[in-house]
Amino acid sequence: MEFQPQTIFEIAEAGRQKNNTGIIGATKRNGTWIQTTLDDFDRMKRHLALALHKMGIRKGDRVALHSENSVRWILADAAILSIGAINVPIYTTQPGDQIKYILENSEAKIYMFSQDKLFSNFKPYYKDVKGLEIVCLVSTAEKGFRMFDDMLKEGEAFEKENPGLFEKLRSDVKPDDLASFIYTSGTTGLPKGVMLTHQNIASNVQYSIERIPFDIEGERGGRILSYLPLSHIFERMLNYLYMHIGYPIYYIEVVEEIKDDIGHVKPMFFATVPRLLEKIYSGILNKVASGEGLALKIGMWAMEQAKAYKINTPPTGFAAFKLRMADKLVFSKIRAGFGGNLLGFISGGAALSPTMMNFFTALGFRCHQGYGLTETSPVLTVTTTGGIREGSSGRAIRCVELKIADDGEILARGPNIMKGYYKNPEATAEVIDKDGWFMTGDVGKIDAEGFLYITDRKKDIFKLSTGKYVAPQHVENTLMNSGLIEQIVVLGASRKFCSALIVPNAEAIKAKMGAVSEDDPDYAARVEKLIQAEVDLLNEKLPAWEQIKKFALLDSLLSIDGGELTPTMKTKRRVIHDKYKLEIERIYEEQ
């Protein structure tokens, strides 16, 4: 397939004729799934776009979109893009002061939000943003704001007065036009506005399709589950991909209900992050361990077969026979719990550990991993069904070039690389050289077959006082293979040894403790002993200088609200070092 510059709406709408369900997607609200037909979607998109045009929005103007995942998110996005405006997505978890900064920096003319709960974060600041119009994507909100239904009526009336205007506005949008400013969550400093064109994102759809883990011609009509935020380019690009191949998308309400939602939707595929798979992994192990009698013995035996599975060296002979028996007796029931239609999933956002990749592949799922950044629209590499390597993020998609710099940094070039950071040419020049190579900030290696292996973030690697370098994410991923560890942050810069701050998995700990009450005076000591045993076991997989010598347990989860995580769940290491300074100092006190 040769590269064909396209707009986002052209590549997304190409799937309309392939969709044999008549449904573009469904949104779960208050426990009820609300479906939207293709015809209704097209009508509302056209009317909302014309209403925006009537309000004065022109090609190149910025419209901010602050909403949880829903059909209305992609509807608003489609309307914005159709008239050549630029979508500025805002995370649902974004603090109000950051929303104000994003709106002012992007010079947004309209702020669209979905519910009062989201707007409340921005409410103290909205009057300070000059010339800002506010639109609500539902039908009830504070007075004085434009409502979704009213916008549709305005657009419908405007269309009657101006027939053919929508088509003309669409035809004026070109592949090189800017489509979105996506503000990076930033582990340090203010967020930067990544400028992505229609061509950047459309090319990523075009070549990521070649890596999706199912036959789109032979398995038409499967549903897709969506739970990662559409404000992040990973899920957003994939949604365009799903629309391109004609698959309806089902947007969940809250992630805590995702297990039930998977059972209801019975999806063929969904995108995820490693943390959800780690939780599912722990849940499967804990459920099997809670069995009794023969069921417990069979379940534990089957889990051993799954844990022993290696993608790089699939079992043969008697080992393969045991895996088939485990599949028949146990794994098939686990797959049924995922709705029975799930072929696989793709993990992004962070490195997926070999343990997770091997385990879920053994269960019969096509467990894929991708790698990329907001600045790369986002996909650079994806594994394929016949090309998965333990610990690898796969090979570069078509039209993307990768190379490793002298200092180990991964560099990328292709049609998906951003135009730059908005109003920040200095920062742009720091990451894109004169030959168009983008400096990812990640460290890795490429093997002889072209498979990429990511070691760590360049800025996160630290040196012990002994002179040894440590890649903390590698150590953290190894320790996260324990079902008893919920979160972990590895420490040790300029220290003699590696240590860690650990948040135990409360549910798994309780299951392990059995009848022991949290009120037991020895409970905390017992928890520490359990974690120590896990750390000791997993330390064996690490070289001596990367092993965790000491750790401190934290009582509460690291969170976005607490300031320790970015909206994309990346660790803010500086914040954590400052916040838990006393705990860290106690770890390194001389004994």
Automatic annotation (TrEMBL):
InterPro entries in UniProt:
AMP-binding_CS, AMP-dep_synth/lig_dom, ANL_N_sf
GO cellular component terms? membrane
Checking Pfam families in the record gives:
AMP-binding (PF00501), AMP-binding_C_3 (PF23562)
The record's annotation in SUPFAM superfamilies points to: Acetyl-CoA synthetase-like
Q: Does the keyword Nucleotide-binding apply?
A: yes
Q: What region holds the AMP-dependent synthetase/ligase domain?
A: 20-422
Record GO terms (molecular function): ATP binding; long-chain fatty acid-CoA ligase activity
Any idea which UniProt keywords this protein has? ATP-binding, Nucleotide-binding
Give the protein name, as stated in the record: Long-chain acyl-CoA synthetase
